[in-house]
């Protein structure tokens, strides 16, 4: 078996790995549920490579991500459910159907009109899917916002979907006012002993912040990832300064740790000012 640029070789390799007796024992033990978290992880690793602008790494991570649908399709094929050809047919049919301005007679229009057309088509698809499944309730505008998304990302998508029918704050200032209101409600729970109420109010605050980011044109998930990365970088500076001054970090004390933290914060501000000015 040799590597190839043809995806059919990847399909052959996956089939070989899943062949009883001669295949890989680990691969043979897996099922849809045991590998689903790998599918999510690989998507995040692709996003990370893009953010780092590491395109050699992106090439490798995209390969790992492509492996996931091939893996799932192989297992489905073994159970007589569907195969990779069915998967590819379904997505090509969907793309053709959702782009009548490219593959049909509809006028191209603008990006905005294309998005509106896309959403109308998706709404019809949701209704058809609900009918096929025999759902006991009418389809919802929110049905295909995946529950498995990270909560912050899902909050933004849920509110964006609701906004399409006018259920939204009028502007960012109104969302900011809502965030202040939710923050006050969180503060009030700290004078109480009801942990469930505190959890609920903090959730409401986070949901409002996700919507503030949406109104500002910012991806809340990406913004939080950037904040996480900044925290890691700054905390590593604190750790390095502790080592430099001969302190164990757990014995350095908050005053000293804050001083080290403020060193890197000040350096960041100076670097930003130099870039901007």
Any overview of this molecule?
- The protein folds into 4 domains: 92 residues, MazG-like (Helix Hairpins), CATH 1.10.287.1080; 33 residues; 68 residues, Orthogonal Bundle (Helix Hairpins), CATH 1.10.287; 56 residues, no CATH class.
- With 277 residues, it is mainly α.
Defining traits:
277 residues, mainly alpha, Helix Hairpins, 12 helices, 74% helix, 0% strand, globular
Question: What's the topology here?
Answer:
Layout: H1 7-17, H2 25-29, H3 32-52, H4 55-78, H5 84-98, H6 100-103, H7 111-133, H8 151-163, H9 172-189, H10 195-215, H11 220-245, H12 254-276
Concise account of the structure shown:
With 277 residues, the chain is mainly α.
Helix content: over 70%
CATH class of the largest domain: Mainly Alpha
The CATH homologous superfamily name of the largest domain equals MazG-like
The end-to-end distance, rounded to whole angstroms, is 57 Å
Strand proportion: under 5%
Shape: globular
Count of separate DSSP helical elements: 12
**Element-level helix/strand string:** HHHHHHHHHHHH
> Mind telling me the C-alpha Rg?
25 Å
CATH architecture of the largest domain: Orthogonal Bundle
Whole-number total of structural domains? 4
| Mean pLDDT over all positions | 90
**Biggest sheet descriptor:** none
Structural class: mainly alpha
Could you tell me the CATH topology label of the largest domain.
Helix Hairpins
The counted number of beta strands is 0
Task: List low-pLDDT spans.
Answer: none
